[in-house]
Amino acid sequence: MVIIYWRFNWKRFYEIFLENIRWKIQQLSLTYHSLTFNTHMSKNYAIDCLLEPVFWFVDNFAGYLGKVFVFCVTILTFAVVAIAYWIGLPYWWERNGYMTVFLVIVGNWLLINILFHYYMGVVTSPGHPPHGAMIAEAASICKKCISPKPPRTHHCSVCDKCVLGMDHHCPWLNNCVGYFNARYFFLYMVYMVAGVTFLIVFGIDIGYQVLWVNDSPGTGELIDDPDLIGHPVRLNKSGVFVPVKDSALYDEINFPRQHILPTPLITEAQRISAHTWKRKAVVFMAITCVSVLVALGTLVIMHSKNISCGETSVEAHINKEMKKRNKNFRNPYNYGRRKNWRLFLGLTQNRTFLIHVLFPSRHKPKGTGLTWHSINNALKDWP
Length: 383
Prior knowledge:
383 residues; mainly alpha; 55% helix
């Protein structure tokens, strides 16, 4: 009789299993590095390939959403203007006719600037490098366009084009903000902030009177009170209409005697309070104006800082990273606060702030956007 003893070496099996796992991981790592170890392909390129479905979704649907945003901005702007005329104009006309004329002039000046700069920001091309042309001062080659890229030019994935002096792609304009329309975009925000501030300052009294002082039932509800229909009315000491039902106050032929009763003056604020839709419109105006003031006011401050430093939003991010790496780094396009603003607003060639900024102007910025002066080669009399 033969007895066979069999033992399973779990420790050895575990070591062999781990060794096979390590070998597979090394194979995968070697395959990945062999595919990315060349001048035309990198880890970033591999990540871009993996994220390509996400990029496709954003690129294709951002264009459609941009048209919706433009429509929403247009409707919202005209709704605010219509409510201002519907409610604000009668209110201020009752208070002071001369003040109303002044408000109409200032308000329409702001409105014209808002509409002009928004329209120009939408329809004006930001500028693109010419295809097939020689660019003398090309900074690099665009990997997506496979064409020379001038200084301060960046590729927009939504527009699928390189944009001269690109700041960002604005869905509210359905357009890129670049070299030729950056001024329109910024002045639109400035005038919109000024416009909503104008409405808040001269509409805060309307909101206070309608939503706070006259928050009780309005004159419309009092007039429609069933207890007052078919009866003469008078004011009690609280200033509320009450019916006169006492027969002693009538003569023998059932006609009321002559009473000297005070006639209350119904103000425009009371009329607005009594009108359901006007009250809702006042609330809508308050929420809209405050929201726009906070949102666009923040953007105006941010872009003002960038303009003062002579950089776009894209360059602000790049320059921030450059300063972390090199403390001595200096933006080559920062000519000083005053000159940066003059160049951005196009106040060159004897243009003035009064005519070309305070009023609508279609003047273009100096230059082509293909070549740029820097702090190292700027002309003394430029701009």
